[in-house]
Specification:
By secondary structure, this protein is of the alpha+beta class. It is built from ten helices and six strands, in the order H-H-H-H-H-E-E-H-E-H-H-E-E-H-E-H. The longest helix has 16 residues. Bound molecules: iron/sulfur cluster (SF4) (3 copies). One iron/sulfur cluster binds next to helix 9.
Length: about 240
């Protein structure tokens, strides 16, 4: 997949450079500044600095044991060749030593990042609560967790993740809260009583927007808002 993405990138490199140039212009446009940012890997500098310093080498993509990171291609607008996280496909699991950060040769993923709770990718937002299994007091079945098998799951960490998700089969759903990879997950997400007699997720201020909960929620109840803090999002919500 990485090879394919890189090949695509090289194939369109001249157009990519043009697109990148246009991208800097786009970023200065007030209209696009107000539009949504992409979810970047842990430690990513502010978007304009990130775009200016990332050399699109793909090193972070290659070392990520969860196959979380992808590179933007020519069809995805500005920032061609830069890494991003598509949380509903695969979240970031905040690996302890941040291999992605260590692999980054330019500091576009800041080497000042040391701890998982210092990450500032974004913030989780609960949407579509009516679909939430926990809220409706419904049990997790095999079909509801089947998305995990669409990945190749070639690494040990991915196999561990499968086991963890499978352990919820037949139980009331609390997947989002139980998979939060922070060392202090209860400060980021908790399950609270729902009016239907079940439990629903509540996001708290330690959430760093890694997207693990968004990926593994069986019914896509959780989304990630990129590059915004809990305080900024929830104070204005
Ligand atoms: S912290 Fe780990 S899972 Fe997250 S992007 Fe970096 S290498 Fe991948
Ligand atoms: S609540 Fe979700 S997005 Fe926030 S840190 Fe935990 S798993 Fe990541
Ligand atoms: S993982 Fe999704 S369905 Fe399950 S409790 Fe959390 S939000 Fe609800």
């Amino acid at each position: 997949m990485v090879k394919l993405q890189r090949r695509k990138f090289i194939q369109y490199s001249s157009l990519g450079a043009l697109s990148l140039f246009a991208g800097f212009g786009a970023l200065s446009s007030p209209y696009l500044k107000a539009s949504k940012f992409s979810l970047r890997p842990p430690g990513a500098l502010e978007e304009d600095k990130f775009l200016a310093s990332c050399i699109k080498c793909g090193q972070c993509v290659q070392v990520c044991p969860y196959h979380t990171l992808k590179l933007f291609d020519i069809f995805q607008g500005y920032g061609v060749g830069t890494p991003y996280v598509e949380a509903t496909n695969r979240g970031c699991y905040l690996c302890e030593a941040f291999p992605c950060v260590l692999a980054c040769p330019t500091g576009s993923l800041s080497h000042d990042l040391n701890k998982q709770n210092e990450v500032k990718m974004g913030v989780a937002v609960v949407r579509n609560l009516d679909k939430c299994l926990g809220f409706n007091k419904k049990k997790v079945d095999k079909k509801s967790i089947s998305a995990i098998y669409k990945h190749k799951n070639t690494n040990e960490q991915e196999q561990e993740l499968i086991k963890k998700v499978e352990s919820f089969e037949g139980k009331n759903c609390t997947i989002c809260a139980d998979v939060c990879p922070l060392p202090n997950p209860l400060d980021a997400i908790i399950m609270v009583d729902s009016i239907k007699g079940g439990k629903k997720p509540k996001i708290l201020d330690a959430c760093v927007g890694c997207g693990a909960c968004a990926e593994l929620c069986p019914t896509n109840v959780i989304e990630i808002e990129a590059r915004i803090s809990y305080e900024e999002y929830y104070q204005n919500a």
